[in-house]
Amino acid sequence: MQARAAADRFIALSAEQRLASQVLGADWSIDGVRVWPLEAFQSVQWAVVASLAWQYKIRPMTTAALREAGWPGVPAAVRSALEQAERDCVTKAMQQVALLRKIAAAAEGGGLRVIVMKGVALSAHLYGDVFIREAFDLDLLVHPEETERLDDVLATLGFQPASQPTPLSARQEALLERFHHDRKFVHPASGVIAERHRALSGNAHLIATDFDRLWDRRGQARIADYSVAILGDADLARYLAVHAARHGWERWKWIADLAVLYHRAGETGLARLHDDAGTDGLLAIFNCAVLMVAATTGTSLPSAAVSGALGDRRARRLAIQALRMASVVHTPDTIGAHRARLRGAAYRLLLKPTLGYLAFELAAFVHHDEDWRALRLPDGLIPLYYLAWPFFYLGRRLRALARSRGPRPEGQAATVAAAHGR
Fold it and tell me: Given this model, what pLDDT does residue 404 score?
């Protein structure tokens, strides 16, 4: 509770966030026993609870918690929206499970090494339940030299590239490739999205990727009647902390994941994670993750880990800023707004104050794939792109603003209105 008390001094969590914390800190293992104190449901704005469940990507957990508590005071419209969201998440998870089985079988049959990074595989590994953790897509990591092989596997299973970009010169394609470590595919029949990754992060100055080492240390997740390779627990804890930090801890489901991993690691394992983070230059990110887990879930962590995290000034700063950003209640329109994007970009610059990391982040900001393909300069005129970039950026923001203020499809409008109590 030391970290939670410290977090209260940093920034006071709202009643709705405290309820989300109760959900995150519960035992969501398949045989877990959960007790919900009635005071957790008092003085909350239920529309905000629904919004935060969507924002933090914990809708199945939140819905299950409220059901187990007997829906205490939850308005009918909010209950209906949450239950519908839960059904949608379950349907999506079932489709992902079926397609992942086919991907795993095809990869194994072709001798292709594929590591599933998160999603339904992580839910099965951490909770023994593929449906309790909200999953958006299938994140698949392969060796950089095997990306085309996985692309071919996905194509044979009916996946299509999410976009068909206009080709550039070989020089420009290679330049942009430095800043894009993944490629998105869509399965039209089901709507399932698969992302093929060749690295843990686009910025190798933040976290390097040694695929062979990750493969040697891999774990296994059992899903229905098949198994898939996943990151080993130590690599998973390191990756999730970095991934969450890069996204400003906007999805609190990662906090629940780390709470399980830290509990499994125990005092010795957590100390080893601390030492490894120091060696990799990720100590502030690791300490921030410890603070986020302990402060928002109340998970009991070894006192040495908590004390060390509290004593890390940069980690405290990162945690404070993350909690402040998470306290802003968003809608699907505002979460991608210009101000929120700039705040997230500024947060990323704080993660690792080294020249290589900062230079890469700033360069990535101006190497926008869409802009390069729209301008299509000859190789000899590439420097002109950097002069034109501000105008492209302004155009993208104006188009995004126009879309956000335009009419929303009737079904989508009704869903958002119900979730937000309107």
Answer: 60
